[in-house]
Design goal:
Length: 610
Amino acid sequence: MENLISLVNKIQRACTALGDHGEASALPTLWDALPSIAVVGGQSSGKSSVLESIVGKDFLPRGSGIVTRRPLVLQLHKIDEGSREYAEFLHLPRKRFTDFAAVRKEIADETDRETGRSKMISSVPIHLSIYSPNVVNLTLVDLPGLTKVAVEGQPDSIVQDIENMVRSYIEKPNSIILAISPANQDLATSDAIKISREVDPTGERTLGVLTKIDLMDKGTDAVEILEGKSYRLKFPWVGVVNRSQADINKNVDMIAARRREREYFSTTPEYKHLAHRMGSEHLAKMLSKHLETVIKTKIPGIQSLINKTIIELETELSRLGKPIATDAGGKLYAIMEICRMFDGTYKEHLDGVRPGGDKIYNVFDNQLPAALKRLQFDKQLSMENIRKLITEADGYQPHLIAPEQGYRRLIESSVISIRGPAEAAVDAVHALLKDLVHKAVNETPELRQYPGLRVEVTNAACESLERMREESKKATLQLVDMECSYLTVDFFRKLPQDVDKGGNPSHSLFDRYNDSYLRRIGSNVLAYVNMVCASLRNSIPKSVVYCQVREAKRSLLDRFFTDMGKLDAKQLSSLLNEDPAVMERRTALAKRLELYRSAQAEMDTVAWSK
């Protein structure tokens, strides 16, 4: 079972080395999945003394105010009897400390390196491993002491900042809370119990430790608390008797202090019946056993999380792509390949593999017909307008048979208005094609990797579409102009002839322009214009597709490819400058993947019974 704690220790060290501190970030965290014992207590609760009693060494910084300003991940490793005790820091991997006064100084110095010599706090943990024959295999996270007042040199927010940090550790479901409370204060005011109750109201994850029992007022005792009668937790309370300040000043040996602690509980009448589960030695063994049990239950879930996250990290790294070759040929090849990927994505949109191309058909099937309908030719062919144009076309000499020039002017003035919807159809398709360029750019991961190339490809594609639009507009408007320049004679030949109203030369000029006659002209012109409109409704989409959609599929980046072949290595490199955010993301993902693979390898080396 001890190898399970060692396993978690190794993974925790890897987490810290590779930047996983369990803080909220855009990266998956393994730290939060690992069971840990978080030590919580108010200032002057005896928290540091409890930890030193468990270790059997003086090694923690002491002083007034907030001494612990960074989480301390304390990993204890039991070694063979007779072996020399030593300590190692993760940030000093090749240095062994045998002088524990030097350990205390290094904790203080490393805290200052992260926070400066201010009295601020930091959530970045310090990792300390202690190897001793006098400890049990155990890992504890010592958190800054909860306080109610900021000391000089600290902002007023420090009180809330410490509480938020402590809460961030103990609110996680895999966290075991070691709540340290002094017996010589009312338990109802205990900072540790208060915050533990908030995050663990049932007490399922909380282990209670009562300090300073020997300092209680005469005539009072902590029996009801230790027996779980005044405040019940799932697990029994443990009482400890730490060294007094006088003992600390006299450098009383920690092993001797443990012996005196055992004697206190075994000889004090109130606590005799509880002596077997009191003291720092019992606390350490109980914590080690409890941590082993929790780790064993969590291992399958951790292993599943590791395997799942490795796949996710590998997928994202693959999507971000690898760094580009350094030579000009390799860079040009990479650019061409990325552009081909973009071009393929763009064609998929047009061909219906991806959404968006269907909107072009909507222009032809809905927008263009609606625009043509809004022209309302019958209103343009009002009696007044017909009379005006017919009269103007006749000039000083009235027509003899039929007002041919008047017909032509009426038809041209109506048909020419179709240029507006035709041009609008060209512009609408251009806007859609341009929108698909931006979609295809966003859907090409490699272009997100290189913002310079992304801009150039986008600009080149949009410039090509602009040229295609001009060609399409020219060709489409020519279709309208063709209808104006040459009328379909057969249409008029097939019209029914009405001699009385069609232009008998014996009629007077006044009769020749009567309303009935003009209505007949208007009806003929409207019929012809509607025929032309129906024809253009079919031919305009063909022109637009031929000049814009077809060309976009065939030659969207042809000119860009030609230009690329003329660039030197330096210019090509400028196109492949990665977005710094992408580079940082790739580096962070690679580190996190290294962490998870390391954890997976550690898991594979450890066997445990189900």
